[in-house]
Write a structure and sequence with these properties.
The protein is an alpha+beta fold. Helix content is about 25%, strand content about 25%. It is globular and about 40 Å long.
Length: about 220
C-alpha cells in the first residue's frame, strides 16, 4: 500500500491545451511505470475541445465547432472547456488493488462526495457511467468519467461542470446519451469556484483512497 503522503497534487493556472496536457500525462505515467516519478492528482481546465474516447461513434459528432482530439480513454465523445474542473488521476493500482471496475466506482464516489459539500445531491446511475443529479426533476449529467489503465497505472479521470457554457455541449451527443441533458452547479443555482471545488476534493480524498486500499482490495 502506497503512502497517501507520497501523492503529488498539482493545480494548473489558466487554460491548459488538451494535447499538451495529454502529452504531459503520458510522460508522467511512463515515469510512474518506470519508478522514476510519483503518483499525481492534476487539476486543470482546458480551452474548448471535443475529445473522442475509444467507443466514440462519428455519428455523434454533430457540429465540430471546436477541435476534436482522439484519446485513449474509455467512453465516447465529451466536451471540455472553461468552467469545468478536470481531474487527471495518475495512481499505481499495482500498489493498491488491481481492479479497474472498483477504481472507477471509487472515482465516482469521490466526485459525488465532493459535490455533496455544496448541497448537490449527485449519484451513480445503473448502466450509465458518470455523475448524475436532478435538474428540475429530470436526471442530468453533471460530471463525466473517462479512464485508461496502462500496466496498472491510471490515466485521465473526471470532469465536473461547475459553470461552463452548456450550449458548447451541443456539438456532440454527450457520452452517447441523447436522452439525457447535461447540467452544472451554476444551472442548479450553486456558486462553486474551481478553488472551492479543489478544496472539497482534497477534503474527501482520504475516503477515496480508503476505498481503493480497502473495498477494492477486499472484493472477492
Amino acid at each position: 500500500m502506497a503512502s497517501h503522503d507520497d501523492i503529488e497534487w498539482r493545480v494548473a493556472p489558466g487554460l491548459t491545451p488538451y494535447t499538451q496536457a495529454l502529452a504531459q500525462m503520458e510522460a508522467r505515467v511512463a515515469g510512474i511505470q518506470a519508478g522514476t516519478a510519483g503518483e499525481l492528482i492534476w487539476l486543470l481546465e482546458h480551452p474548448p475541445v471535443y475529445t473522442a474516447g475509444t467507443s466514440a461513434d462519428p455519428a455523434e459528432l454533430i457540429d465540430p465547432r471546436f477541435p476534436v482530439v482522439a484519446t485513449g480513454r474509455g467512453g465516447r465523445y465529451t466536451y471540455h472547456g472553461p468552467g469545468q474542473r478536470i481531474g487527471y488521476v495518475m495512481l499505481n493500482l499495482a500498489h493498491r488493488a488491481r481492479d479497474v471496475r472498483c477504481y472507477v466506482h471509487a472515482l465516482e464516489g469521490w466526485v459525488i462526495a465532493a459535490l455533496a459539500r455544496f448541497d448537490i445531491a449527485a449519484f451513480r446511475a445503473d448502466g450509465r457511467v458518470g455523475i448524475w443529479t436532478r435538474d428540475g426533476g429530470a436526471e442530468a449529467k453533471i460530471g463525466a468519467i473517462g479512464v485508461r489503465v496502462k500496466r496498472w497505472v491510471t490515466m485521465h479521470g473526471f470532469s465536473v461542470n461547475l459553470d461552463p457554457d452548456l450550449a458548447d455541449f451541443g456539438g456532440i451527443v454527450p457520452c452517447g446519451l441523447p436522452d439525457y441533458p447535461v447540467t452544472s452547479a451554476a444551472a442548479l443555482g450553486k456558486t462553486v469556484t474551481s478553488q472551492s471545488f479543489d478544496d472539497a476534493l482534497s477534503a474527501t480524498f482520504a475516503d477515496f483512497l480508503a476505498a481503493l486500499d480497502g473495498a477494492c482490495h477486499n472484493k472477492g
